[in-house]
Amino acid sequence: MTQIMHIAAPMPSHGEHSGYARLSDAMSAKVIFPPGPLKRLLDAMPARVHRRFLDPPNSGWYWNNSFLAAELAALAAKAVKSCVIHALYGENSFRWLGFGPQKRPGAIVATLHQPQSVFFKAMPQPRLLERADALVALAPCQMDFLTKLCPQSRIFVVPHGVDTSFFRPLENAAPKGPFTALVVGSWLRDIELLNSTIQKCSGMDIPIRFLVLAEDSFKKGLEQNANVRVLSRVSDSGLLDLYRSADCLLLPLKDAVASNALLEGMACGLPIAATDVGGVSSYTNEGCALLAPAKNAERLAGILEFLAKNPQACSEMGRQARLQALSHSWSAIAQKMRSVYSAIIQ
Hints:
Blueprint: E1 3-7, H1 22-27, E2 30-31, H2 37-44, H3 47-53, H4 65-80, E3 83-87, H5 90-93, E4 107-112, H6 116-122, E5 134-137, H7 143-146, E6 155-157, E7 179-184, H8 191-201, E8 208-213, E9 228-231, H9 236-245, E10 248-251, H10 260-267, E11 272-275, H11 280-283, E12 289-292, H12 297-309, H13 311-326, H14 330-345
Parallel strand pairs: 1-2, 1-3, 3-4, 4-5, 5-6, 7-8, 7-10, 8-9, 10-11, 11-12
Helix pairs in contact: 2-4, 8-12, 10-13
């Protein structure tokens, strides 16, 4: 029987119920992270030995001994038994896997998360991906550049998932106060667009309040607006409360493939106001999201004004958002991933 082994390291910004590493739980996969004794051995090596023999050149972001140890442990396991090794964050943990022997039992898979605009900074040795048995794209927008790195027959589009049991609307919710637009996340967010949108909303005849949960580096200048509340860190339950207290999710984006915030907001029944970039349109539909062209603050502010002035339409969009999110439950995504594994190990 082929064993499923995942190289998965939760991102520091992700809580217990967020992030792509939740796929391992849904698939009951063995997680090779943290790698334990092998990492301690690598940490103890002289730096000159490490650099000469172990560090792949131009290793990119997030690279450290934990990822190296996990890859080496995975290759050792695969040498003695048939297994599927899946690097859940391929940009972070697909280096040495690309140097393994080509004729081997089982398969090696990598999921790639980044859009073309940043992918080659994150993955400076992309040709290593030619050695993967399958690449998993999280949205069709990645296909244009991935097909230049790997035959299309080995690329599978499997969407990101969301914990729809945890992220869910509040039943019998009490009436809310002023219309609240929630902004969650920092990666590839467009702070200039957000600031411009806030300024345009300040002159409207209906009050709109903004809640912003983001890294400190993203929040510069936002707090000077009287209708903006800025937060840095919250617990899992605090994040859920934020989604449930908002009237819509606002995503001013520079680029995107998949988005935890997008799926979590939808799962909590929030209509979406976002920039139409990357994979956003492949995760949403016209019933649950209103999308604006990139850099268009006037259009984005207009969407917020429409939602604020039309509570019934806003409520219906939230209902449709929840239905759309249910199709991305981790159980549904796990089933799609099992189909990928089956296709490549036959």
